[in-house]
Design goal:
This protein is an alpha/beta fold and 751 residues long. The protein is built from 32 helices and 20 strands. The strands form four sheets. Strands 9, 10, 11, 12, 13, 14 and 15 form a seven-stranded mixed sheet that branches. Strands 3-2-6-7-1-8 form a six-stranded parallel sheet, with helices on both faces. About 7% of the residues have low confidence.
């Protein structure tokens, strides 16, 4: 039996078509890597092609390694002569031989991201660039994008006419390139760009590699950018034996520079190109594939194909709409737990979401339910830099004795306080056996910090201001003030606009977490406490010490999920404004919405056996409750493919929104009343119900008395604080611990 007998008819056609340009449109789960490896074997064994005349290019080292292993198993002798590598590795090998032709020594250095940042600092210093106004990362991002499009500093400057910001980038770009050349160094973008320049200026070098690589194969072609396309087209220009494999429906990396036009226009760029579609899916059930087909067919910029399978219809797509995002997370956790009790394994389940910030609620629910999980392609919510920074502000305000928290934020955002100054403060504090923050309150006792005294005084004044405000405003308002007065978000945006968006979403989720905590306190008639909030967060965040278990639920963004597959997938947060995002919906560019739809298609096709799609009618964003309609992508799936077939909730949404607008939060009312002076007229409507407890009447219990609460049971009164219209009572309950609450709402009974 031949190794090719295991292939389906379309796969065989792709393997046996060896001459001329070939586009293999490989749908999700259609076995594209199998086709590529068998094609290489066929070229050598049946067509007599020399192994060293074959080049196979992938995007990642992992993919290259997997392909290399499979090629070695299929081909055997001579397989080591085949070039199977990434774009960058291929270019390095070429440049090591010939880069001296374009003005560099062959022993050039390759700068990684840290080296690039160091070089950019030098460039900004030479050009006297104000790095508070123009961040180094912004320049590096702009230069990288320019190199991807093969735009030189001269061309960039020409295109920047009349735009001062772009002219500044052009100036920095030119100096950056000058210093790279002086250091005989290349960055990662240069590896491709310099190879293309080498081919364009040295015809003999290009011809030698065209002769060497007579058969070229490129995987994940839909993810190529402009310079990668140019590199491949130059190499293949002579013999035209270029085989590219990809799926335009899975082109989701535009933000990284991927150009979907490379695959859509393949037949225009390469005349007489053959197109073969791989539409048989080996991964999913037909119902899942029908849902994916129904969604993606709404895109105009695509090549038509329809996925099908022999795996059977399988279960219908489960669709669940919940009242809140909390209910959504609770359902997912409970559903997984029930399935595990029935014999399933955690590793069969994946939670996919549009933004990293969405992981927070699922993480907290999984910790509470003892469900092991792992964030793939991201960091646990409370371990993210921006979250730790802002929590350390709260910790410092709540407890200035937390030296680690104070040291973390003393220069965040940057205040020009150097490491030497921080070390001297720490040494002084240690010598006097006091805390770091306490040492800051007495700077005149610390030698060698006089030059930084004004900056340190400013930091201390800021923290002291926040401490006063913590007694006056809610934790949500305090957090918003911290973000505003420190300029934290502005600093993130100045560092890197692309990276900042995800971090800002995480910050908004933290604010929502605080607001949800305060709402919970109101529902339980307990006064919110900064200490209690930080304690609650610490219990959830303390998960790094858990033993690593290979059996865990996977949480990841849809972008991270590409190329993976799971028996059971939960696609969560399927709401307009979240997925697709609000910016996409309001954009004038239809291509942005089409990329979001491709991302949805990728998410659906990750599921092998069971797909559950969930959404919430209301979701807290930036600490405020927002009402969202069900995602338009859900509405593109035929009802007959859905388990429940119809969604009655949307009809109720308008009514719910109207009711919510006239409700007043119980905690907000109580907080306002507590601050009011007695007998002050605050516009209470005639006939409004008065408080059951008033200042004149007082309380029928005192500190030390035993009292009973309807929910928390019996306890001892530890403190009573008198406010304008109410009393704040602190009670140590026998079973529920210490609680702070307003007397009006607590309705404590003396026993």
């Amino acid at each position: 039996m031949s190794i090719y007998d295991t292939l389906n008819e379309q796969q065989k056609e792709a393997v046996f078509h060896t001459e001329g340009p070939l586009l293999i449109l490989a749908g999700a789960g259609s076995g594209k890597t199998r086709v590529l490896t068998h094609r290489i074997a066929y070229l050598i064994e049946e067509r007599g092609v020399n192994p060293w005349n074959i080049l196979a290019i992938t995007f990642t080292n992992k993919a290259a390694g997997e392909m290399r292993e499979r090629v070695d198993r299929l081909v055997g002798f001579g397989a080591e002569s085949i070039w199977v590598s990434t774009f960058h590795s291929t270019c390095v090998r070429i440049l090591r031989r010939y880069i001296d032709r374009i003005g560099f020594d062959t022993n050039f250095t390759i700068y990684d991201s840290d080296d690039q940042k160091s070089l950019m600092r030098d460039v900004c210093r030479v050009l006297d660039v104000d790095t508070k106004k123009y961040k180094e990362r912004m320049f590096l991002s702009a230069i990288s994008a320019a190199k991807d499009e093969m735009i030189t500093p001269d061309e960039y400057e020409l295109n920047a006419a009349g735009d001062f910001g772009k002219q500044k980038i052009a100036q920095v770009y030119r100096e950056y390139e000058r210093q790279l050349h002086a250091n005989n160094a290349l960055d990662f973008d240069d590896l491709l760009l310099k190879t293309v320049q080498l081919f364009q200026t040295q015809p003999d070098v290009l011809e030698s590699y065209q002769e060497r690589f007579r058969y070229i194969m490129v995987d994940e072609y839909q993810d190529t950018n402009t310079v990668q396309f140019k590199f491949v087209s130059l190499l293949a220009a002579k013999y035209q034996n270029l085989c590219v494999v990809g799926d335009d429906d899975q082109s989701i990396y535009k933000f990284r520079g991927a150009n979907i036009r490379n695959i859509l226009n393949f037949e225009q760029e390469f005349q007489n190109a053959r197109v073969i579609k791989l539409e048989q899916n080996y991964r999913s059930t037909q119902n899942i594939l029908n849902a994916a087909n129904a969604v993606i067919q709404n895109n105009r910029g695509r090549k038509d194909k329809t996925l099908w399978t022999d795996n059977g219809d399988g279960e219908k797509v489960h669709l669940r709409q919940f009242d809140t995002a909390y209910d959504e997370a609770e359902f997912v956790a409970d559903d997984i737990r029930k399935n595990i009790e029935n014999g399933g394994t955690y590793q069969d389940y994946a939670i996919l979401y549009r933004t990293n910030a969405q992981s927070r609620m699922f993480e907290e629910k999984f910790v509470a339910c003892n469900i092991p999980y792992k964030i793939v392609g991201g960091v646990n919510f409370y371990a993210r830099r921006e979250i730790k920074d802002l929590l350390c502000y709260l910790k410092t305000i709540d407890n200035g004795r937390d030296d680690l928290a104070v040291r973390r934020i003393i220069n965040v955002p940057k205040r020009g306080i150097g490491l030497t100054t921080i070390t001297r403060i720490q040494e002084s504090a240690a010598a006097r056996e006091i805390g770091f923050y306490e040492a800051l309150l007495g700077l005149d006792l610390i030698p060698g910090v006089a030059r930084a005294a004004s900056k340190l005084d400013s930091f201390v004044a800021l923290i002291e201001y926040f401490k006063r405000r913590s007694d006056e405003v809610s934790i949500t308002d305090l957090m918003n003030e911290i973000i505003e007065k420190t300029g934290y978000i502005e600093n993130l945006e100045a560092e890197d606009k692309e990276d900042a968006q995800a971090r800002i979403e995480n910050i908004e989720e933290l604010v929502s977490k605080i607001a949800a905590y305060e709402e919970q306190c109101a529902a339980e008639q307990v006064k919110p406490s900064l200490s209690q909030f930080l304690e609650e967060v610490a219990l959830v965040a303390d998960i790094d010490s858990l033993e690593e278990n290979p059996d865990y639920v996977v949480l990841m963004t849809l972008h991270s999920a590409k190329g993976l597959e799971f028996p059971h997938v939960y696609l969560v947060g399927m709401e307009d404004g979240l997925f697709p995002s609000y910016m996409t919906i309001t954009s004038d560019n239809d291509e942005d919405l089409e990329e979001e739809r491709r991302l949805c298609y990728v998410g659906i096709t990750r599921a092998e056996q069971e797909l559950t799609m969930t959404c919430a009618r209301k979701r807290m964003t930036r600490g405020e409750t927002h009402y969202n309609r069900m995602s338009r992508f859900l509405q593109e799936i035929p009802k007959e493919l859905m388990e429940n077939g119809s969604l009655p909730f949307d009809k109720e949404m308008q009514k719910e929104r109207e009711q919510e607008l006239i409700r007043q939060n119980a905690y907000t009312q109580a907080k306002q009343a507590f601050r009011q002076k007695p007998f002050q007229n605050y516009g209470i409507q005639k006939g409004a119900k008065a408080f059951a407890v008033s200042k004149e009447k007082g309380l029928d219990y005192q500190v030390g008395d035993r009292v009973r609460h309807i929910k928390f049971g019996e306890g001892t009164v530890k403190g009573i604080l008198e406010g304008g219209r109410d009393f704040e009572v602190t009670v140590e309950f026998d079973t529920a611990g210490v609680k702070k609450m307003f007397a009006t709402f607590a309705k404590l009974k003396k026993i």
